[in-house]
């Protein structure tokens, strides 16, 4: 890079929206003939651009992220052969078969022009449909899982580059991300939000996608949860103060 390109643009931040997560489905009887006997699912874990391509059958992936990503590493459970899988070109994803859920470590390696360090994000591999009750985690019966079809678990995130090098900034501005739609165009919604699972009935038809309204809804849910926590804290604080006053009164009576 020329010296001018090595100068950081101070006070500027630029972001790129991504989604990461996985889809999973039950193996067919024929598929199970060619995998270890305990394996029940085929799953794909991926890191993609947030927007979905028109008519696409996958979550996200409208944009090629290799203009700023050099490599994506997926660290699987240690029981898999070669658990660290490096993907050096798009699509940044891998597919495997298995039977259990576990945490996948996803490392993002940026192109040299960025001057950015590797960052790591974490995803809990999801194989089973979300709990129908919405408040407990349990593996559903086989017939329920079959009716649910493909299970999706995805998280929206924005990678923010602060004070980028001029050359890297040029690369980013020359590759603007495809905007995510305001509302869902696929006709399908999925439980993106941790702690807010939906019944499998809402998972039918179409391909799930992220929308700006979905992000707004999530922010409102987080704000509501924050207010509930504050209210509970105040309630507990008031109860503690009352108990302390009662203790002081009893001690005064005992000493008097």
UniProtKB/TrEMBL annotation:
Gene: YAF9
Superkingdom, natural source: Eukaryota
Keywords for this protein: Activator, Chromatin regulator, Coiled coil, Cytoplasm, DNA damage, DNA repair, Nucleus, Transcription, Transcription regulation
Free-text function comment from the UniProt entry: Component of the SWR1 complex which mediates the ATP-dependent exchange of histone H2A for an H2A variant leading to transcriptional regulation of selected genes by chromatin remodeling. Component of the NuA4 histone acetyltransferase complex which is involved in transcriptional activation of selected genes principally by acetylation of nucleosomal histones H4 and H2A. The NuA4 complex is also involved in DNA repair. Yaf9 may also be required for viability in conditions in which the structural integrity of the spindle is compromised.
Assembly and oligomerization: Component of the SWR1 chromatin-remodeling complex and of the NuA4 histone acetyltransferase complex.
Domain YEATS, first and last residues per copy: 8-175
Family of the protein in this entry: Belongs to the YAF9 family.
Name of this protein: Protein AF-9 homolog
Organism encoding this protein: Lentinula lateritia
Compartments, record wording: Nucleus; Cytoplasm
One Pfam family matching this protein: YEATS
Chief location of this protein within or outside the cell: nucleus
Domain remark text: The coiled-coil domain is required for assembly into the NuA4 complex.
């Amino acid at each position: 890079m020329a010296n001018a390109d090595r100068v950081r643009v101070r006070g500027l931040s630029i972001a790129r929206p991504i989604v990461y997560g996985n889809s999973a489905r039950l193996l067919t009887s024929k598929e199970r003939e060619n995998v270890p006997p305990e394996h029940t699912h085929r799953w794909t874990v991926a890191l993609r651009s947030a927007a979905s391509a028109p008519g696409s059958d996958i979550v996200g992936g409208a944009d090629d992220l290799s203009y700023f990503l050099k490599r994506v590493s997926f660290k699987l459970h240690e029981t898999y052969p070669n658990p660290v899988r490096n993907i050096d070109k798009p699509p940044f994803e891998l597919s495997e078969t298995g039977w259990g859920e576990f945490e996948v470590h996803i490392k993002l390696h940026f192109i040299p022009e960025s001057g950015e360090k590797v960052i790591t994000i974490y995803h809990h591999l999801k194989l089973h449909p979300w709990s129908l009750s919405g408040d407990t985690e349990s593996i559903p019966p086989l017939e329920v899982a079959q009716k649910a079809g493909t299970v999706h678990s995805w998280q929206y995130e924005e990678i923010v580059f602060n004070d980028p090098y001029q050359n890297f900034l040029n690369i980013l501005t020359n590759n603007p991300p495809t905007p995510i739609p305001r509302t869902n165009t696929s006709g399908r919604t999925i439980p993106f939000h941790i702690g807010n699972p939906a019944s499998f009935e809402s998972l039918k038809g179409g391909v799930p996608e992220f929308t700006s309204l979905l992000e707004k809804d999530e922010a409102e849910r987080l704000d509501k949860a924050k207010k509930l926590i504050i209210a509970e804290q105040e309630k507990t604080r008031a109860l503690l103060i009352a108990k302390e006053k009662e203790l002081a009164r009893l001690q005064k009576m005992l000493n008097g």
